[in-house]
Amino acid sequence: MTQHVIRSAACVQSLKASLWLLLLTLTLSAGAAVEEVRLATVTTSGWTFYPFLNGGGSQQHFSTTSSVATSHLQNPAPQAVYKKIQAEWSTLTWGVSDLAQTGSYKVRIHLSSVQFPWYSQVSQTLTVNDANGSYSIPNVTPYLSGGFNVGMIVEFPQNLQPSAQGEIGGLITPTAAGNWVVVSGVEVFQNP
């Protein structure tokens, strides 16, 4: 655990000024519609940590120190996103809010074939919910792509509309009893 000690009055003043600027920035941006949200199992380069097993539970994460192949992907996430997965034998969920209700959005699910004890049992259905209904892509697994440490992106083809509350959410569910699910990240962005 790292501890920071403020050693001078100048440091205290600088810290106060920084906190005031942060508060002002947050106040000015409050209520603005979000154009892009990136959720992941790690915090890195514009991606925010997100606990996909909402409501607690084991929060099982597995990672690799090896590079993950992403050169075959169009607009991949940073390597750090693909190097860590959340794996569960139950449903994982995600949700974003503060989206422009008049906006049209795309959703991309980022997956990776990081090795973990139950990788051979991964088969999942990806579902996204918007103002118009639910859309699902069944039988998805990143472990059929040619070995371990290979990235995969699943993009929903629909132009998604946020709910009246400005929300889009989704589920990652086991395809059948005994299946596992994995995720590295979820990207929601406004359709140009």
Keywords:
192 residues, mainly beta, disordered N terminus, single chain, globular
Question: How would you explain this protein's 3D organization?
Answer:
With 192 residues, the chain is mainly beta. Helix content is 13%, strand content 33%. The strands form 3 sheets. A 5-stranded mixed sheet has the order 2-1-12-6-9, with no helix packed on it. Mean pLDDT is 82; it is low at 1-31.
What is this structure, in a nutshell?
The protein has helices spanning 9-29, 79-82; strands at residues 36-40, 48-49, 61-63, 84-88, 92-96, 105-112, 124-130, 133-140, 151-155, 168-174, 181-183, 185-190. The chain is mainly β and 192 residues long.
List the helices and strands and how they pair.
Blueprint: H1 9-29, E1 36-40, E2 48-49, E3 61-63, H2 79-82, E4 84-88, E5 92-96, E6 105-112, E7 124-130, E8 133-140, E9 151-155, E10 168-174, E11 181-183, E12 185-190
Parallel strand pairs: 1-2
Antiparallel strand pairs: 1-12, 3-4, 4-11, 5-10, 6-9, 6-12, 7-8, 7-10
